[in-house]
Amino acid sequence: MDLGELPVGDRVFSGATNVPDLFIVPSSEIQPRSSIGIQKRPSYLIMSDSHLKHLPERLRQPNYDVDIKLVRGAEWISQYDPELSIQSIISLPDIIEAVSSSVGVGFVIGTNTLRHIPSHEAIEQVKYIITVLHIIHNYYHRKCS
Question: What tens digit of pLDDT does each residue of 12-64 get?
């Protein structure tokens, strides 16, 4: 092998004069010639306390998926444990991502909140959580209005 045939930088010399130089183009500069539309299946997010503990994390239906985020002992707004508070949970990065990629969000939260506060206050907490969801994910607000 002759030293003139060794690769140099991003060009390869083969010794022949009619071989074009090869340039490495970053993938960010490559434009696709045709785009293939991939449509993601719609998914719904359900946040639940232990009431749905016997269901799998993902339910696949013929036309949509249901993702279940289970928090045992969840309360709407917990004064004692922020890890059990839906108010805190909806601000976590993985939950924000799950809500953002879902077409709808549902809650199955039982009576844990009612152990500490009267029912009319729990209803106000639910209203507050929905308002926070609308603020964090304002496109849900547009869909629901």
Answer: 444 444 444 444 445 454 455 555 556 678 999 999 999 999 999 999 999 99
pLDDT at 86: 92
DSSP 4: G
Cβ(102)–Cβ(44) below 8 Å: yes
Q: What angle do CA 53, 56, 59 make, to 5 degrees?
A: 130
What are the structural domains of the chain?
Answer: 43-144 (3.40.50.12690)
- Let me know: does 99 contact 44? Beta carbons within 8 Å: no
DSSP 112-143: TGGGTS-HHHHHHHHHHHHHHHHHHTHHHHHH
Pinpoint the alpha helices (H) of the chain. Answer: 86-89, 93-100, 119-136, 138-144
